[in-house]
Amino acid sequence: xxxxxxxxxxSIALAPGWTAELREVTAFGETSVYLAIVPExxxxxxxxxxxERGLIGAHEWVELVGRTNRAKGRRVSLVQCGDFAGNxxxxxxxxxxxxxxxxxxxxxxxxxxxRCRLSDVGRDDQxxxxxxxxxxxx
Length: 138
Prior knowledge:
Radius of gyration: 14 Å
Number of helices: 2
Largest sheet: 7 strands, antiparallel
CATH topology: Protein Transport Mog1p, Chain A
CATH class: Alpha Beta
CATH superfamily: Mog1/PsbP, alpha/beta/alpha sandwich
Helix content: 10-25%
CATH architecture: 3-Layer(aba) Sandwich
């Protein structure tokens, strides 16, 4: 891994050729900030979004995300990503492939997802997994 990017009280090691930047998005009147990590080709996105609102406990949130995905018929797997633990899913969303993780460490919630074209399924799996396995609380 090339270097660590720190944000929101945690850090992640970026893979060579991948870059990171903070981005803002506004939905339903709320603005949130997330970390966007993209490969050199800029044709996929690993998005890490913290939830600092405290509406629900971190562990309860991970369980809720798992139940919601199971109810939609998706296979949910337990995962460990560095200092974070939670669950993951994979599925087709519109014309994209989506891998999603609901993670927590202590009281820190982290929503992670990776999106790419259907034709690129599996291309970045190993590097994305390595980056997520480098997640550390700061």
